[in-house]
Amino acid sequence: MPVDPNAAITITAFDWVPEFARGQVRDLRVRWALEETGQDYAVRYLPQGCQKKAAHRALQPFGQVPTYEDGDVTLFESGAILWHIAERFPGLMPAPPDGQCRSLEWLFAALNTVEPLIMDRAQMTIFEAAEPWSAPRLPGIDERITERLQEVSDRLGAAEWLAGGFSAGDLMMVSVLRIIEGAGLIEAFPNLADYVTRAKSRPAFRQAMADHMAGFTGHPPSGPDERTAEHHPKQGVLT
Asked: Residue 6: exposed, middle, or buried by beta-carbon count in 10 A (0-12, 13-18, 19+)?
C-alpha cells in the first residue's frame, strides 16, 4: 500500500541515520506489518535530536521511534504496535484455535529471547568496536547467539513458518534475525537462512523496505551531536 500523507494511521521515523542503521531502524517492522495488512499510512519524519524533545516524548517516553497514531490510539514499542495491527487487521494472525497464541509467543520470543543477544553483538561490533573489551567478548556472545539460533532452527525444522501461516511472530523473528545477516551465524543454519530469505521475498517486505530507505532524505547533525548519533546506542538509531 502506498505511503499516504492523508492516511488515518501515522507512524514516526528518522529522516537520517548512519549507513549501518539503514534498513534496521524499527519503523521498518511497522511498515512491513501495515503492508501485510493492506493499510495506508503517513510518516512523520524526525531529524536526529528531535526524538528527545518534549513533543515526541509525549508519544514515546524514551525518545525513540517508531510511534503509531490512529484516532484515539497512540502506541510506542514496535512489538506492541505490531500486535495491535495484527489484532485489528487481517493478514498477520494464523487461524484459530491456537494461531493467535502461537503467533504471540514467537513475537515475544523474538524480542525477549533472541534479540537481546543479537543487540549485545551490535553493541560490541558497532558502538564499542574500538574498546579493548570488545574483541575478547565477541566469541562468547556468538556462542550464545548460536545456541539460540540452534533452538529456533530445531523448532522451525522443515516448516515454512513458525506458527502455521505467516504471522506477526514470523515478521518479528525475521526482523530480529536480519540484524546479523552476513555475519556467518544464520548462514550456519540452512533452514533459518531460507526462512529469512522467504520472508524477505514477500511483496510487503520489499515495499516496506523501499519506503523505509526512501525516507532518509535528511542530514546528519553537526559537531559533537554527529559523533553521538553515529556511535552512541542511547541515541536509538537502531530503535
From this structure: exposed
User: What domains can be seen in the chain, in order of their start residue?
Assistant: 9-91+213-233 (3.40.30.10), 99-203 (1.20.1050.10)
Residue 223 has pLDDT above 70, yes or no: no
Q: Is 203 exposed, middle or buried (0-12, 13-18, 19+ CB in 10 A)?
A: exposed
Q: At what angle do helices 27-36 and 78-88 cross, to 10 degrees?
A: 10
* Cell matching residue 40: 495506508
User: Which amino acid would we find at residue 69?
Assistant: E
Amino acid at 60: Q
Sign of the CA dihedral running 24, 27, 30, 35: negative
Give per-residue pLDDT as tens, 99-140: 889 999 999 999 999 999 999 999 999 989 899 988 999 999
Question: Which grid cell sits at 1?
Answer: 500500500
Q: Could you tell me the pTM of the whole model?
A: 0.92
pLDDT digits (tens, 9 = 90+) for 139-191: 999 999 999 999 999 999 999 999 889 999 999 999 999 999 999 999 999 99
Question: Partners of 159 in the beta sheet?
Answer: none
Nearest C-alpha neighbor of 199 from the set 35, 19, 48? 35
CA 184 from chain centre, in angstroms, equals 20
Question: Residue 11 phi/psi, 5° resolution?
Answer: -115, 165
CA-based max dimension of the chain: 56
Per-residue pLDDT averaged across 40-50, rounded? Answer: 97
CA distances from 143 to 123, 148, 196 (A): 16, 9, 20
How far from each other are the two terminal CA atoms of the chain, in whole angstroms?
24
